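Shipment paperwork, digital attachment
Item: protein structure file
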Amino acid sequence: MQIDKLRGEQLDQLFDAILSLKDREECYRFFDDIATMNEIQSLSQRLQVAKMLSEGRTYHAIVEKSSASTTTISRVKRCLNYGNDGYKIVLDRLKEQAEEK
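Attachment content:
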């Protein structure tokens, strides 16, 4: 994993902080303080791209809907195919939550 290069107390603290958030409003408040608008938008865009790729959407459709570059789409696709299943875990859980509603 690439993130292993960053693994340590500092990153553990960040992840623990995120895991401590209780609801969406707390997430909005925390991320507004900790990240720039561009950083937040990039992260949310990548998740949207991953969802669309997992649904079988074409690059063209993804570019039109998300405004993501083909480079971003390719990177996300590579993570979906050869990564550590992080996107898969999250997308599966989001799908389960949507089905429960």
